Amino acid sequence: MAEVFLLPEEVPIITSALKQQAFLFPANYLLQVMTLEHGLRCLELESLESLEPPEPPEPPEPPEHFAGRLYEALLVLE
Fold it and tell me: DSSP assignment of the chain, as one string?
């Protein structure tokens, strides 16, 4: 699971970048945005593959894909 703290205007940029990654999202993932104090947003991203495998079972998402997707998406904010 990853938590990323963003400004409100950065949320759509990051979520769009995440959806355009070379590594496709796994079948089961959680992506939610929470509003915090002072207008900050907390984006939570978690692969749920190991919690509830679909039928037929798919292999879990490799951690390097999860980290790579998040890293590449964050680069768009530079």
Answer: -EEEEE-GGGHHHHHHHHHT-SSPPPSSEEEEEEE-GGG-EEEEEEE-TTTSPPSSPPPPPPHHHHHHHHHHHHHTT-
